[in-house]
């Protein structure tokens, strides 16, 4: 589980260094997806959602490596067209699916073991982060790099809100993972059927 969390940090938090058209990510996304894939393989017995992480994480490893190389040599930013649109869409849709699977996996652990991992916060923050990401991508693609337009301003604002949402997701996921390990060490994990508790409902089912 720790590998998955560290992978999420690398995948969601962008610390970019710019040298003209060359961009270097201090926390490379592909490292994050490698960690998520390995982590999912190690904990796949905890739930089907963790097993479902393997394929999209593997796909994102190759996509993020290609994106990292193209950004480093300055090709992706110089080309303003189909490659940029493709990386922008695929590079944000698949990660959103990965994060959702992780949240669902943590929620399933709560239901099956009768423990509280505070996943409600993750469910509340996730859609906000996804919305800000979508706004950033849509308006960012429609904005010109050389002219300050309304689309560019909206995209810039959405970018910082997206980063804030990503930071909030990381913080809440840290709490969930920390509580998971705490219950593993103390042995206080109980099965809902044995404790008389009913499985927790998801927010939209309550």
Commentary on this structure:
This protein has 9 helices and 2 strands, in the order αββαααααααα. The chain has one domain (2-187). It has a two-stranded antiparallel ribbon with strand order 1-2. It has 206 residues and is mostly helical. It is 73% helix and 4% strand. The chain has helices spanning 2-12, 29-43, 48-51, 54-73, 75-78, 82-113, 119-142, 150-186, 192-195, and strands spanning 16-19, 22-25. The radius of gyration is 19 Å and the shape is globular.
Identify the strand order in the major beta sheet: 1-2
Gyration radius, rounded = 19 Å
Element pattern in H and E: HEEHHHHHHHH
Beta-strand share of residues = under 5%
Parts with pLDDT < 50 across at least 5 consecutive residues: 189-197, 202-206
Number of β-strand runs = 2
Question: Into which percent range does the helicity of residues fall?
Answer: over 70%
Main pleated sheet: 2 strands, antiparallel
Overall mean pLDDT stands at 81
Overall body shape: globular
Distance between the termini: 27 Å
Class by SSE composition: mainly alpha
What's this entry about, in short?
28% of the residues are buried. 73% of the residues lie in helices and 4% in strands. It has 206 residues and is mainly α.
């Amino acid at each position: 589980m720790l590998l998955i969390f560290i992978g999420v940090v690398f995948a969601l938090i962008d610390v970019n260094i710019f040298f003209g058209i060359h961009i270097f990510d201090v926390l490379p996304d592909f490292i994050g997806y490698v960690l998520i894939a390995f982590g999912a393989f190690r904990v796949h017995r905890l739930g089907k959602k963790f097993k479902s992480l393997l394929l999209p994480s593997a796909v994102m490893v190759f996509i993020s490596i290609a994106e990292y190389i193209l950004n480093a040599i300055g090709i992706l930013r110089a080309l303003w067209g189909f490659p940029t649109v493709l990386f922008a869409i695929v590079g944000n849709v698949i990660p959103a699916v990965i994060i959702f699977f992780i949240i669902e996996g943590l929620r399933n652990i709560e239901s099956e073991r009768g423990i509280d991992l505070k996943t409600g916060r993750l469910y509340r923050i996730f859609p906000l982060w996804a919305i800000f990401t979508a706004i950033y991508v849509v308006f960012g693609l429609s904005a010109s790099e050389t002219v300050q337009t309304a689309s560019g301003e909206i995209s810039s604002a959405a970018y910082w809100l997206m980063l804030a949402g990503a930071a909030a997701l990381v913080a809440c996921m840290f709490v969930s993972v920390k509580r998971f390990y705490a219950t593993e060490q103390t042995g206080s994990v109980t099965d809902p059927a044995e404790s008389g508790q009913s499985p927790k409902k998801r927010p939209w089912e309550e």
